[in-house]
Amino acid sequence: HDCGGGGMSLGDVDRSDDSLGNETETTTTSTTTTTGTGTECQPWRVSVGSGVSEMAEGTPDEKPIVVVHLDGFSRLELNTAYIHEVGSDQQIAGREVYWSVDRSTFIAKCSDLNAWGIFSKADSDEVASGECSARLATSPPGELVDSERLLQHWGEQLFGNSVPRPGSGVQRIGKTTTARFATSTTTTSTTTTTTTTLADPHVVTSDNHGVRSVAIILGAFLASGGFLCCG
C-alpha cells in the first residue's frame, strides 16, 4: 500500500477514529505529506482493546516504549498518544515522564499531589522544580500505567478552575519494542519539506485484564516518496 499524500500545517496532529476506536497521529515539521489512516500504514498504533500489552519480540537495538493514549478533554491537543522510553533517565518527582508524539505537552507526576498532570512543554523547567500549578489537566490518585484499571475521570484546568471530565484520561495503553521517528524530505523549486512520522513495526496489545492478546507484527520502511507498507 502507498501511504503518502495529503498536507498539514506546522505542528498539526492528524487524529481520526476508525471503526475499532483507533487513532492515527502524524506530526509534521512543515507543510508536507502525511501517512494514510489504515493500520497497514500506521503499524505503531495500539489497535485492539483498551488495555495493557505485553512486549513484542524485537531486535537487540530496539528500545522498549510505553504508549499511553489520552482522550476526553476539550483541548483537542491533549487527546493524543504519549510515549515513554523504558530506562530513560528523565524523571520528575522520581517518576517517568511521558511526551506527546509532537512533544508539545507531557505527562508527569506532581510532587505536591498524589496525581499526574498534563503540562505544556514551555513549563517543563518549572514542573521539574516541583511547581505544578501550570498543569492543563490533573488525574485522580493512582498509577498512570495500571494493569488492573485505566486511570480515568481527570479534571481539566479551564480559566483557573478544575472542570471534571467524566471518562477522560487513559483510554488504552500499549508497549512496543521501539518508537521510530522516520523522516523524509521533499524538495521543490521553491521549498524543502520535511515529514516526521512515528512508526512502530512491532506492537502487541491485549485487553485491560489480560484475558486475550493479539499480536500485530508489521513492518514499515521509508522510501524516498514516503512509506510503503507491506501487508
TrEMBL record:
Spans annotated as Disordered: 1-45
Superkingdom assignment: Eukaryota
Segments of skewed composition (Low complexity): 23-40
Protein name: Uncharacterized protein
Biological source species: Zooxanthella nutricula
